[in-house]
Design brief:
Blueprint lengths: L1 H14 L3 E3 L11 E3 L1 H20 L4 E4 L4 E2 L1 H7 L1 H4 L1 E6 L6 E3 L4 E4 L2 E3 L6 E3 L6 E4 L2 E4 L9 E4 L4 H6 L1 H8 L5 E10 L14 E11 L4 H19 L7 E5 L11 E9 L2 E10 L3 H10 L5 E3 L4 E3 L2 E8 H12 E6 L2 E6 L10 E5 L5 H15 L4 E3 L5 H11 L3 E5 L1 H6 L1 E6 L5 E5 L3 H10 L3
Helix pairs in contact: 2-9, 3-8
Bound molecules: adenosine-5'-triphosphate.
Length: 446
């Protein structure tokens, strides 16, 4: 059933222009995906909500847009060149390669193969380290290559600009620097649609604090980010949970870490990680760059290196969670209705307008006029390419909260039929009230 839901979501995303395979006409490029017209809109809505919540609405957080390709020394300092590796093990039976930390451990050195379910003995099939960094030649000639690295997290762009931001913005701690952008990892275990990609997008905040405030701010961010998914993105609370990392699971830089997990079609998996990174990053960058990245404490009159709390979210995983959470199938008159019950403000179109009859010019004209009035205020769609039932189904599948039908009577009574996506209830309202009606619907929380 869960597998079934996954393939239905993938098919819907393709059919309705949300997500396509990367380089598809050339046979595809594994683990790269393209967002279609509706996918690009949903992705942008998610990013806008995040940016608005943290950068626009808060005084102690500022935004940043740093380069994707960075100097090799950045990743020497961050530990990525040395330590950003996966331990891979080959199954001696089916010959497939797996990340050992993702396999089920069934005894000392014994793991269960995900593919053929036989045992893998890691004392015989020795795990090998594989670095996930992607590098590219940034010199002007091929004979004398000079390599830069594609960042595996947006965070490093923030750390290397910490001093620039402090100096130019005249801020005091706590100070958050927020960034949305692409990150790249040569992931080995791929699949599961857009859950694990080699090119993906992150929304990260590095929240710099005095060391003694780190624990409290860490707890604050765990709760804040959990609430964000429920109240701002509209995910169901029962599909979200927190999971605190065990000490032996923590990344080399982290003092503590909690994952926000979502109940994806293939099970509970990480949607976001919130970590207390201590002062690891600034300390290491100060060492390697030989620049002073410390702050002055006005009270103690001493210099110190700030601690940092990092809520690190994936745009693509949030997108996947939103579609998965909203996906519903309902039996209506013996037929299956597929409907995306998205939070209305996330929908690609807040309303769709149809003329009931396409061959009546006055009707089409009125429908187009109503559409233009709406479009002036909200994202909207006009469609006259099918029978009404088909048009409703199309809009249900992409999560349009309201459909407006203009019929012959509309010409005289100046009313239209407005249909609610979730209840399918139809109401007749004055044409003049349409824009207001949509506004009310979209401002409702769900
Ligand atoms: P995982 O254990 O699933 O590989 P991670 O712990 O390595 O994830 P982080 O380094 O904490 O991930 O990255 C922060 C966030 O970035 C993740 O919670 C996820 O939302 C997103 N992310 C990380 N790697 C990928 C990827 N390959 N594809 C899509 N999103 C990703």
């Amino acid at each position: 059933m869960a597998e079934d839901k996954l393939s239905k979501i993938v098919a819907l995303c393709r059919r309705r222009g949300f997500v396509f395979g990367g380089s598809e006409i050339y046979g595809g490029l594994g683990s790269f995906w393209d967002y279609g017209p509706l996918g690009a809109k949903l992705k942008k809505r998610i990013k806008d909500i995040w940016w608005d919540t943290y950068v626009e609405k808060r005084n102690e957080i500022v935004g940043l847009d740093s380069s994707i390709i960075m100097h090799e020394d950045v990743f020497k300092a961050s530990g990525h060149l040395e330590g950003f590796t996966d331990s891979l093990v080959d199954c001696p039976h089916c010959k497939k390669r797996f990340r050992i930390d993702k396999l089920e451990k069934i005894g000392d050195n014994l793991y269960k193969c995900e593919e053929c379910h036989t045992n893998i003995d890691s004392s015989k099939s020795k795990p090998r380290k594989f670095n996930l960094m992607l590098k590219t030649n940034v010199s002007a000639t091929e004979d004398e290559p000079y390599y830069g690295y594609l960042r595996p997290e947006t965070a490093q762009g923030i750390f290397v600009n910490f001093k620039n931001v402090m100096d130019s913005m005249h801020k005091k701690l706590p100070l958050g620097i927020a960034q949305i952008g692409k990150a790249f990892r040569n992931e080995v275990t791929t699949g599961s649609f857009i859950f694990r990609m080699k090119e993906f997008e992150q929304m990260e905040i590095e929240y710099f604090v005095k060391p003694e405030e780190a624990d409290e701010k860490y707890k604050y961010w765990v709760n804040e980010r959990f609430d964000f998914y429920v109240s701002k993105i509209g995910l169901k609370k029962e599909n979200l949970r927190l999971r605190e990392h065990e000490k032996d699971e923590l990344a080399h830089y982290a003092k503590s870490c909690t994952d926000i997990e979502f109940n994806f079609p293939f099970g509970w998996s990480e949607l976001e990680g919130i970590a207390n990174r201590g002062n690891f990053d600034l300390t290491e960058h100060a060492k390697v760059s030989k620049k002073d990245l410390s702050c002055f404490d006005d009270e103690t009159k001493e210099r110190f290196t700030p601690y940092v709390i990092e809520p690190s979210a994936g745009v693509d995983r949030t997108f996947f969670a939103v579609i998965s959470d909203a996906y519903n199938e309902e039996e209506v008159n013996g037929k299956t209705r597929v409907v995306l019950k998205l939070k209305p403000s996330l929908a690609a179109y807040y309303a769709a307008v149809f003329p009931l009859l396409k061959n009546k010019p006055e009707l089409v004209e009125l429908a187009k006029k109503i559409f233009c009035d709406i479009k002036d205020k909200f994202p909207a769609s006009y469609d006259d390419t099918g029978a009404i039932g088909k048009l409703y189904r199309r809009q249900d599948e992409i999560g349009t909260p309201l459909c407006i039908t203009v019929d012959v009577e509309s010409l005289t009574d100046k009313k239209v039929t407005i249909r609610d996506r979730d209840t399918m209830k139809q109401e007749r309202i004055d044409t003049e009230r349409v824009v207001e009606y949509i506004k009310e619907k979209v401002s409702q929380n769900k």
